[in-house]
Predict the structure.
Amino acid sequence: MDDPRDLHEMTGSPEIAEIAGTGSKTLNRLLIQVVPQLKPARCGVSDHAIALAQELESTCGIQSAFVVVNSNERNDVSYPVAFCAPERLLESCTSLGSGGPAAILLHLSGYGYSPDGAPAELAEAVAGIRADGRFRVAVFCHELFAGGMPWTSAFWFSHRQQKAVRKIVEQSELILTNTQDSFAWLNRVPVLRQGASVDFLPVFSTIGEARRRTPLAERRRDLAVFGLPGSRQRAFQALARLAATLKELRVEAIVDIGTEFDGPAEIAGIPIRRTGLLDAADLAAELSKTMFGFLSLPWKCLTKSSIFAAYCAQGTIPLLNNPLPAVVDGLEDGIHVLSPKTAAAVLSEGLERCSIEVWRWYAGHGLHAHATVYAHWLAQPQPEFTASGTVSSAR
């Protein structure tokens, strides 16, 4: 039943290798990634951007540089980095690009750039970059805008958040997002640039991907919980209500991975083993030895969760606290994931298939797939920038 190929063979793209070797004049060899902060291992957007930079460089020789907007916190990443306020974005990108044409990838998460989640100054800066003519612009929408009831701040901020997002995507050639709801909203934006494309691409694992899936017979019958202390505390509260499901699955231990906090010693009689904070390689190794991983998330958020992606990338079976209402983004309850509704049936039919199917599902949009999208975009013909600052047609 298992696939004898490894993950790279399942996701390999001969086209990206061809792009890497052409030395084509149309392939931009520098991608400037714009992020709200650059905190390796402490920020999901940062880890996403850094992993992408590493893959683009190793796969097709595309270099990355970073512009950090509204944060001056230094780090030890091995890439050129500029720190600036939004109004200095063009100047920073020009400096990193040595004054020539380049490409920009904006990682959009509104609250990272603005306290109200509406990065209006950033939107103005992106419009200025587009008007300058030297830079191609892509955006990956990690988040779009908040929503809520009228008595919440999210309700009152939502309109201006949407306005800022619209202005940013209207300047972009390539627009990517990680949920189907965001994809549908972006396709309704009234004014997109001619030829601009909007694509749905679930996030990849930022802790690595198993080239070959570890069979369940070689794993412990444990259930992993990892993330920030607050999210793990909520996960433990949800797990306490799933005692019957944990018993059905015969979970022997709950593995608590992350910064330690004052949590319970057991749930439903199942002991909790704490590993503390692990680096990416050790975390991936831990998940590869663990049969289940738990998430307490709305089903609409699964494809933007790096925790969910990490489980899938290792073939660790995700356990959800609520059933999926239907097939969601190619995920089916009882096939790719488990819930209290499907646990007993899957257990009777065998869990191996579930591990295989979620690993295969992940293969279609892993890190290599993301890099391929950007490499193809960068290989497209673009206008030529002249020394005078004008743009002429590419030949």
Remarks:
- The chain has a mean pLDDT of 87.
- The first strand starts at residue 30 and ends at 35.
